[in-house]
Amino acid sequence: MQRTLLCRVGRSLEPGLGGAPTQRGELRAAGCAPAGRRGGVEAGRRTLARLRSMQTLLVRLVVLLGLTSRLLETSALTGAPWGRASRVFLSPSQVKDRRLGLKVKDSNFTLGGFPSLILAGTIHYFRVPKEYWRDRLLKLRACGFNTVTTHVPWNLHEPRRGQFQFTGNLDLAVFISMALEVDLWVILCPGPYIGSDLDLGGLPSWLLRDPKMKLRTTYKGFTKAVNHYFDELIPRIVSLQVQEDGPIIAVQLENEYGSYHMDEKYMPYVKQALVTRGVKTLLMTADTGQDLTGGRVKNVLATLHLRSINKATYETLSSFQGPSPVLMTVYTASAPDGWGALRHSLDPHLVMRDAREMLAFWFSLNFYMFHGGTNFGFMGGSAPLHSYLPTVTSYDYGALLTEDGDYTPEYVTFQELLRSVTVPSHNLNPNEVHRPPQPESRPRVVYKPVTATYYMSLWDALPYLDEPTRSAKPVSMEKLSVNQGSGQSSGYILYETAISSGGLLTSRGHVQDRGQVFLDNLYIGVLDHASTELTIPRRSDYEGSQMLRILVENQGRLACGPDINKERKGLTGDIYLNKSPLRKFKIYSLEMKPKFIQRDLPNIWKPALFQPRGPAFFLGLLRVGDHPRDTFIKMQDPGCSLERMRSWCSRSGSLPL
């Protein structure tokens, strides 16, 4: 037995342990090492890869032992043979009375009174353009899944306190209804915290205006905001529950609260907040193996994330839940990519092996992510890996569809697997099953290169922006009096103050996250998480004071962990010059949202005859013709200062970039 298990050792099931190789042969170019250090870096990477391989072996062995333990337990409880080939799963069109809902009966889920597997894949509607929702859902169905899982980001739906958005790409009700139209169930994760590698885990940054805020607890300031949000959100989805003949079969409470567990009264509060507003479908929690107990709630189904799983996990699960079906709410095939880090990869053979093992035990599973999509704008968060790792724009995540929704080889392999081990009904012949049609890939095109022909310096634009905030001390983004008192959530923030001498500029960790420092218009250097000191020269050609400028970029708040309560951005405390705190600041909010970019500015564009120095806006023209198609934009040597790009489509067949 031991020899067999060792032959099956492969990819670690814990995100991050096996993340050194690149995803499908690609690299993120940001953060390359200087030429003189690359040899040492490569050697270090090889050493790290060997260590990860050892970890992989141990983790895989432990997981298999845990799954074997669950197999024996399941077989004893149900009498089901190990080698059963077909697993029944039901879609909405096959259930005559959907109002019976999803139930737990011994070690099975039932739908309409019949045993059924839940085979789900995660798609985040807010990471996919609304025009492509149906295409992605149809591809999920055609792959062999019967359920879509989606999370609801509070920070996008209530970007300013009391102002809600449920239209366009955020029209949740339309997405859920569309899932039913293509014959999919829905597992909904309304939070309030959802993680999902979003800025602050999907919590709105304006919560941090309260200096005493305790996120994810029963702190009065937090629960008051949650109640107001749920008053808007929950009425929009109650009629879409399976009991009302809709597709929502389960609602997840919070997300991995066992790893946070700051307040034992909090999860019961979330449950009550949902139930009293009309949620009556199956409730569940989701936690890793080691955090299972900390996240449990009485009379709520506990489900698992496929991390830290061992024999004790199932013993713990059975001790407080008894015989019950196992749902791997997050079957994670990869991990999110971070700026400056090598991309993660997945081994499709091992992915299939894991899935076969789970299906052999009659586990239900959710593939995270089936389609990852894109972190549009500044929605991506950061991970507390080592020190700080901002999430990249692509949320590929080793998904079965590419970022733009195309098929991957893994999609086809997974489709074949699901067809081989499942039949859509308990009395149908697999050879007679009608398979849903598989949508064709969407056409893409390569357009001609675009050259930035004009630029506008940030310094030239400042007089035409909103009036700056004046403050004796630095003020963080969240505490600015902008956006009707909700503060600034994302983008950049500029601090200006007059100094009369040079010397040592010290941040003491108060620059969050990356600050470019200028003396008047002259670039001096960077203050960030790693660099906390800069020498400011005294310019001999000036008399009197000079303008010290610190342009701070918010690279994304932590998406998880106990430090999320501290995730304020900009200058979060005093900045010192020669050990004396600087005072009398002018502070410009540079949120970089469409309203900011589209403001009416005078024609102060200048020809980009040479590469301008310092922060600037650039203008180029992309001609797309009468029938625009999807495309990717590849930046040629963008430099460290380029972090985001905005585009607006026009009917004229051109895109100003």
Automatic annotation (TrEMBL):
Signal peptide coordinates: none
Pfam families, alphabetized: BetaGal_ABD_1 (PF21317), Glyco_hydro_35 (PF01301)
Residues in Beta-galactosidase 1-like first all-beta domain copies: 487-591
Residue ranges of domain Glycoside hydrolase 35 catalytic in the record: 109-419
PANTHER family per record: BETA-GALACTOSIDASE RELATED (PTHR23421)
Family affiliation: Belongs to the glycosyl hydrolase 35 family.
Protein name in UniProt: Beta-galactosidase-1-like protein 2 isoform X2
Native source organism of the sequence: Vicugna pacos (Alpaca)
